[in-house]
Amino acid sequence: MRGRLRVAGRDNGRMEIWINPACSKCRSALELLDAEGAGYTVRRYLEDPPTVEELTEVLRRLGLEPWDITRLGEPVAAELGMQAWPRDETARERWIEALAAHPILIQRPIITADDGTAVVARSPEAVRSVLP
Hints:
By secondary structure, this protein is α+β, with helices and mostly antiparallel strands. The chain has helices at residues 24-35, 52-62, 75-80, 92-101, 124-128, and strands at residues 4-7, 14-19, 39-44, 110-113, 118-120.
């Protein structure tokens, strides 16, 4: 699969981490996972964007709405006028479709674990919260 790479670790659960290699928070999360010997798959989500269905499932697992994981500071968000988009159920699908079409808008890193948990892993504490 383009944009994915399997990384060995102790057999203590598997995770997938969505990263942008240029992101310092992503690199920090990977360093922590490696230090803990966690097994994970790297998904370079800019090269291998999540589908609408995958985003919907990740949002369910996170317990968040699409606007909660949208990087509104990105130029494409301004071009789309997302700051003014409604943040309610009627606009939810529009937000998810925008994230799928423009993955640069997705907050990073996101870790999904085989046990059904998921987290936006921007802090060491958030990364640790999904470790077995």
